[in-house]
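Entry 12.
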Amino acid sequence: MRKNPVSQSAFFGSHVFFGLAIVLTGISLALVGFGRPAHETTQSARYTRVRNSREPATTVAQKSPRLHKTTVPLVFTVTNTNDSGTGSLRQAITDANVAGGTITFNIPGGGVHTISPLSAPLPNIAQSITIDGYTQPGSSPNTNPPTMGDNAVILIELSGAISPVINGLTLQFALADNCTVRGLVINSFQLNAIDINSNGNTIEGNFIGTNPAGTAALPNGASSQGGVIFVGASSNNTVGGTTPDARNLISGNIGEGVSFGGTGNTVQGNFIGTDVTGTLPLGNTDRGVFINASNCLVGGTTVDARNVISANGRGVDLFSGDDNTVQGNFIGTDVTGTVVLSNPNVGVNTNGTSNNVIGGLTATPGTPPGNLISGNGTAGVWVAGSTAQGNVIQGNIIGADITGTQPLGNTLGIQIDGHDNTVGGTDAGAGNIIAFNGGDTPMCNAFFAGIWVHNDPAINNALLGNSIFSNAGLGIDLEFDGDPNCIEPNDNCDVDTGPNNLQNYPVVTAVFSGGGSTNIQGSLNSAPSTTFRVEFFDNPQCDTLGNGEGQTFIGSADIPTDASCNATINVDLPVSVQSGHVLTATATDPNNNTSEFSTCTVVQGATPPPPTPTATATPTATASATATVSATPTATAAGTPTATPTSPPTHTPRPTPTPRPHPTEGPRP
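Predicted 3D structure (tokens):
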């Protein structure tokens, strides 16, 4: 029998009807749910701390009372000095490497707690983590100002004395950015105290390379580089800071104190090479600060940013990279700026790099941004290498104490091997005090000069507006290797070449001062039809080598030569000079080649007679006066306090260690 088609159609129709009803009901329920408040339907996950820190954190789904909630930073507390296990530093780093956080300390008992990795290095730090040793009860950061010693109390010591050949801490490449390490003593590791290959990190308030008291060396770096080492292209890191609690003591290491790669790094407010008091030597055996980078800052424009960088193998080495700045530091002295703590080699070395700034414009030389660079074993500042150019040295004290009046000499003030560099300048506050270098025995030797412009590539170096006095050698010495001359002789029309093109110096024949005005007469023989900047200096007495130095800059004049290479000097300056003092002068050509100082001329107090029509330019060349030029001085300098040179304090330099391999450097003076 056939099925009834009408019955089959009715069957399907009823099923379709019920299906549509179910779908519509579901849509209605969904719409009702969609209209409910979000906090009733949204779930969020959060970490729940488990008691055993070695167990992995679990995730528990719960309803959140709000759509946006504040995330509480994870804190991992070290409660013992064990090398591993619950409560150990190793376990805390392992746990923090999951998602970052802060590692604190709460180890029972008083005194210093020493943590020693025994069989393996601590885990590399691989997240943004803060390790804060000052959370240990009884610890306290430094509160003393930059003029005093460090009074920090640090009770967490990370020691490598019984460890394998490892770093103290390692911040891993590309993972451990924006970390902070503070309040730790890190010493005795065969590799580096802190090895950093990441960006944006802060190292502050630590003792690195010393005992917990900061009084004796327990060096890091015996098989590597030393203290705080930034490798590769690590950038925008800070060692120290401008607040008292940020000061690090980085001393006693085998190798560098601080070494930078990358760009934009800063080292401020630290003791590097001294003990905790800032008054005794505890040097790193190589450079205090080694910069293999660009756009880095050592120090700053305030006293709070000052580093004391002393008693190291070398002070600051701008080894490669350009555009670095060294400001406001004490380099070669103690924290008071009155006692020598010599870096046995150079104070600051530019090593062929360019466009660096050492110091800056300041009302008083040696105050920030100016540096105090004194007591160093060779040059205070070495503009090393024939490629060194565009470097600016301003506002510093180089060879005197912080008052600028007492001797703390370097062996040599400044040595310039490169071209187009500037020492001082024409702006107010640009001048340096360069004094007492080379000891107290006058000698015609460029190694004991105030400024030595060295060899033929060293041209176009401007030496302007400085206070240069009481150096054992010449104030300014233009000398090439093998030069038989002590004082370079002037030559007719100045056609010779050499350091600063052996620019001829002026000949001053008479000086009369009284009634608030000083008249200076003389001549200049140099390149024809050229205008020279001639600067004049007041000195209490003449240098024993004959040609003087230049203690107090009193003004300048623009002096043009004629077609026959001659110019007459007849200048009135609105300043009084004491009768019996001596006046000296320098000449600088339009390319910034500055001469040595002229011979001394005694200042007289009478009214000047008419100028002599003919002046002898040099013993070997006669220059005819062709014009009288009056010039308004471009600057008037207040008298520098007169200081009687005395022997610098005796100090025994630390022996220079056998160097480990480094990129090849230029010859040292």
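Annotation: The first strand starts at residue 43 and ends at 48. The chain is about 5% helix and 30% strand.
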